[in-house]
Design brief:
By secondary structure, the chain is mainly α. Helices cover 58% and strands 2% of the residues. It has one domain.
């Protein structure tokens, strides 16, 4: 039978056969599905956004409502930093734009982002050999012998701030701000986005833990999926409400560093070695403790070698096994560069934070003795330096007692969490142990409750315990109250960590 002219095959539409049209539609659907975030991710982002708004609002309200008495005498040196008289060369701390987020080390990050490491307005340090390599910070460098205190900090975070500032410079709402103000806002944005990345990483790590238990958590419906379900969200939320979790919304490196480091750990656990290596490189440029990521990467490489197909695909295996070198390369390059040399000069000579585990043990012994006895004994003995009163043994102020207690609790919690995780996720636990040793291994270590936020085992352990409703409620209440106290102190420039 001859088909009449003018009639077309009914199975063809617009000249495209149905089979090909179906395949094209399938590709479009898959692309749309890949670009559309899952419900779990949207839930995490929503919690993060609300938390960020609450923290920023709380700091503004607290600064408007309270006027605490100055200075802060919690440590021997803090009255200098919290007195009403501020050094002229610390003007970068006094810009009114987002000033409640800019305290202490924030000035150095802003200074580097705005004017580089040799910022003429930055404080500088002069090694005076006649006084045993001690020095005095001054407003400006007087000669080549003076070293800017900016060198005490890594370049990764200020570089990220620079990228955001480039965008701010053309936006109507921010282009008219001062450079210090733009840098402050950029620092908050980078920190907050880093905190979001850390949340997502904890969710993925919780998902792996759930799969290894071979049974989903009781509060998950069917499966934890890639993002850990309710348990993943709990771990991410515990990070936000940790007593020092507010640093994820300040001009500090914590947010960016833990975002990169935690996600590097998650990618290493999932054996996505290329991604893990890239993230480890970036994390090492933010904080020296990024070198500790060699442990999760090395453990993942060890597991790769144990795979049956490792020999058959030896080229691919060799590339994955080489991933642990990723954080080592940028660390070594930085260490022997001018940045690394000046970093050692400032850290050892001025800040006194030289890595010395033996001296650290003596120091922590004095600290614990002071905490138990109620008398400051940190100025006595071989490792004494008078961190609390700055004088020979005397009554320990109540503010110092609280400070010491928080330091010791943070350390104990971090160690316990790593012990809990060591059999479940060895590489991530070893990373946590390495962070603890590097942070607490200085003869003048301070700020442990801030540094320990970089130990992912803490939030994985707490989230696992948080499946029990009583523990969850108690931890949320206690941790949030302590965070409220600490973020208030920080907002007014009082010493926290």
């Amino acid at each position: 039978m001859v088909e009449p002219k003018g009639r077309e095959d009914p199975t063809v539409t617009d000249g495209v056969p149905p089979g090909r049209r179906g395949r094209a539609a399938g590709v479009v659907r898959r692309l749309a599905s890949g670009l559309r975030p899952s419900g779990e991710i949207l839930r995490i982002v929503a919690v993060w956004a609300v938390w960020l708004a609450v923290i920023c609002t709380f700091q503004v309200v607290a600064e408007s409502r309270l006027q605490p008495a100055r200075p802060d005498n919690v440590l021997a040196w803090t009255h200098y930093a919290t007195d009403t008289a501020t050094l002229d060369c610390r003007a970068r701390l006094n810009d009114p734009f987002f000033n409640e987020h800019v305290k202490y080390d924030s000035e150095y990050y802003i200074s580097i982002a705005v004017a580089g490491y040799n910022d003429p307005e930055a404080q500088a340090y002069y090694p005076n050999s006649a006084q045993g390599n001690s020095g005095i910070p001054v407003c400006r460098q007087g000669s080549d012998a003076w070293v800017s205190l900016n060198y005490a900090f890594m370049p990764g975070y200020p570089m990220a701030m620079d990228a955001v500032m480039a965008v701010e410079g053309v936006l109507p709402g921010t282009s008219g701000q001062t450079q210090n103000g733009q840098a402050a806002l950029a620092g908050i944005i980078v920190s907050a986005l880093g905190g979001l990345l850390a949340m997502l990483a904890l969710c993925r790590l919780m998902a792996v833990l759930a799969r290894r238990r071979k049974s989903p958590d009781s509060d998950d419906s069917a499966s934890t999926g890639r993002w850990g379900g309710v348990s993943g969200l709990r771990a991410a939320f515990y990070l936000l409400i940790f007593p020092t979790g507010f640093y994820l919304a300040q001009v500090y490196t914590e947010g960016l560093f833990i975002g990169l480091a935690f996600m590097a750990c998650a990618m290493a656990v999932e054996r996505k070695m290329l991604f893990a290596a890239g993230l480890a490189v970036l994390a090492t440029l933010v904080r020296p403790t990024g070198i500790c990521l060699i442990f999760p990467l090395a453990w993942a490489a060890f597991e790769v070698l144990r795979e049956p197909e490792a020999r058959a695909h030896w080229r691919h295996t060799a590339a994955r096994v080489a991933a642990p070198l990723a954080p080592v390369v940028p660390f070594v390059v930085w260490w022997f560069s001018v940045l690394g040399q000046n970093w050692r000069a400032v850290e050892d000579g001025f800040f006194g934070r030289k890595f010395d585990p033996i001296a650290s043990l003596g120091m922590w012994g004095n600290v614990i003795d002071s905490f138990v006895s109620g008398f400051d004994k940190t100025a006595t003995g071989l490792y004494g330096y008078g961190i609390y009163t700055g004088t020979p043994p005397g009554p320990l102020p109540s503010s110092s007692t609280v400070y010491i207690g928080l330091e010791l609790i943070a350390l104990a919690l971090a160690v316990a969490a790593c012990v809990w995780l060591i059999r479940r996720m060895p590489g991530v636990a070893l990373f946590g142990f390495a962070v603890i040793v590097m942070s607490a291994g200085s003869s003048s270590a301070q700020g442990m409750d801030r540094y320990m936020i970089a130990v992912p085992a803490i939030f994985l352990m707490l989230a696992s315990f948080g499946r029990r409703p009583v523990f969850d409620r108690v931890w949320v209440l206690g941790s949030t109250l302590v965070m409220g106290l600490l973020v208030t102190l920080y907002t007014f420039g009082f010493w926290v960590s």
